[in-house]
Give the backbone structure.
Amino acid sequence: MPDPKTIATYDAKAGDYVKLTATDAPDASLQAFIDLMPKGAEILDLGCGPATASAHMRAAGLRPDPVDASAGMVALANDTHAIGARLGSFDDIDAVARYDGVWANFSLLHATRTDLPRHFAALQVALKPGGILHVGMKTGKGDDRDRLDRFYTYVTVPELRHMLTKAGFVVAYTKEGKERGMAGTKDPFVIMRAVKAADA
C-alpha cells in the first residue's frame, strides 16, 4: 500500500516536481535505456510522475504505459502530455510477459524494504524474456522521511544487486552518483539496469 504522506506530498507539489524534472531531451540514463529498446517497444513507466520520461519515450517511437499512485501526478501528466497515464500502485502490477522494458526511476525507493523483493519479482514476471528493468534508488542504510515527509527506503549497492538477482534478473549496468532532489538535499544514488533471462 502506498505511504499516504508520500502520496499527499506528490499530490500537493506536482507542479513543483514537473519544474524539477522537465527536460527538452532525455538525460543520459533515459537515452541509454531508449537505445536498448526495439522499435515500438512497450514500456512500463512505474511511478511516472508528470510523465516527462514517457513523453520522451513516445517521441522516440516507443509505447509507454505511465502509472503513478498520485492522482495529482496522473492528472498533470495527462494535462501536459495527453499520454494516457493511469492511477496505480506498485501492488497493481500484475502483467505477464507484456513489457519490453520497465522504467522505475526513483519510484520504488518509496516502497518498504520488506515489499521490495515482491515488487521486483512482479516486474520480472511483467517483462518479456530479454526485457530490461531500469531502477534508480537512493543509497544508504535504513529508512527515513525527508523534510517534505516523503518515506524512503535506502539500499546499498550490493543489497540492490542481491534483490534483483534473487528476483531473476542479471544486472548488466551500475552507475553511482549524487543528485539534488525536490527536498533540496544532494543525496547519493545508484542506477542499475537488469535483464530478464531470455529463457525465463
Remarks:
- The beta strands are 42-46, 63-68, 86-87, 99-105, 127-138, 143-145, 151-153, 169-180, 186-196.
- The chain has a mean pLDDT of 93.
- The longest strand covers residues 127-138.
